[in-house]
Design a protein that fits this description.
mainly alpha, 76% helix
């Protein structure tokens, strides 16, 4: 069974959200191979370029024929994939030049933007259950990231996290608006735009490109991680986004935060305090709540 069959519109929405949860959880581990590649002597932003470029190269042969035969959909591909690519690039740049904590939390305001935009462009019905889920998930994210909301000082770089979430939300709404658009082509454009913006940012910041010997050592692990592991998770999330509310998808994607925090604690020996565990429970409870209430939420 391929990804298209696994995530077809006939798939139960609750099952689709479970697939998103699993796929986003994989994203929570992306820092491991990216940090390994960085440790070889490649600057963080060029690592982002590599992890965007390799999936693009791998996808292109499978998308070329479809792209040529569906030129009328290029605007949709560019709008959706471009918005997602911009969102990912801004998020990655925020993690490099700004606060990791604030960038992550500001990005995960995504469910709010997606819910509001979904009510306008997808005619979704807003209800109390959705806002309860958003609130629980956001509180869990704040606790896990240990953000002190009572003593927040924002800098210009923090807008990268905010804008990344807005851009990702716009892309998710466009994907939801066109459920029959080829999700592989959208993903191709996402990687193209994301990689291009990351490369421009790296050049603008004057970050040196690694030597060929270093790249030769880094590319095999980067290929396995970005193409064989993370690319399928992107395809799953984008596909489910076509028939499940983008707002709900954004909430369930908070599983990435749980896995990222847990894996960093496991591999780096970082201590998880009491409030972080409360945040874990809040996000897990949010996921269970969405699963139970999904039949009554806006997209049904």
């Amino acid at each position: 069974m391929n990804i298209s069959q696994l995530t077809s519109q006939s798939t139960n929405k609750r099952t689709g959200l479970l697939l998103v949860c699993a796929a986003a959880s994989v994203w929570g581990l992306i820092w491991v191979p990216m940090r390994y590649v960085e440790s070889l002597g490649i600057s963080a932003l060029w690592v982002v370029v590599i992890f965007q470029t390799l999936p693009f190269i791998a996808l292109f042969p499978f998308c070329r024929k479809s792209l040529l035969s569906n030129r009328q959909d290029w605007v949709v591909y560019l709008a959706a994939g471009g918005a997602m690519g911009i969102g990912f690039a801004l998020y990655s740049l925020g993690l490099v030049v700004g606060s990791v904590t604030k960038t992550t939390v500001l990005f995960y305001l995504t469910p709010i933007w997606s819910t509001l935009l979904g009510s306008i462009y997808l005619a979704e019905r807003l209800n109390r259950a959705r806002w309860i889920a958003i609130s629980m998930g956001l509180i869990g994210c704040i606790l896990i990231m240990k953000m002190n909301v009572f003593d927040m000082q924002f800098s210009k770089s923090d807008f990268l996290g905010l804008l990344s979430g807005l851009s990702w939300s716009v892309g998710s709404i466009i994907i939801g608006k066109y459920p029959n658009a080829n999700v592989m082509n959208i993903t191709l454009f996402q990687y193209a735009v994301g990689g291009l913006i990351a490369a421009i940012a790296a050049v603008f910041l004057g970050l040196p490109i690694a030597y060929m010997g270093v790249l030769a050592s880094a590319l095999p692990i980067a290929f396995v991680a970005s193409v064989c592991i993370f690319l399928p998770s992107v395809l799953i999330i984008f596909r489910v986004n076509q028939y499940v509310s983008p707002g709900l998808v954004g909430i369930v994607m908070l599983s990435e935060v749980i896995v990222a925090a847990a894996s960093s604690a496991l591999f780096l020996g970082e201590y998880l305090d009491y409030w972080q565990w409360v945040g874990f429970v809040a996000i897990i409870t949010t996921g269970a709540y969405i699963g139970i209430m999904s039949s009554n939420m806006a997209t049904d």
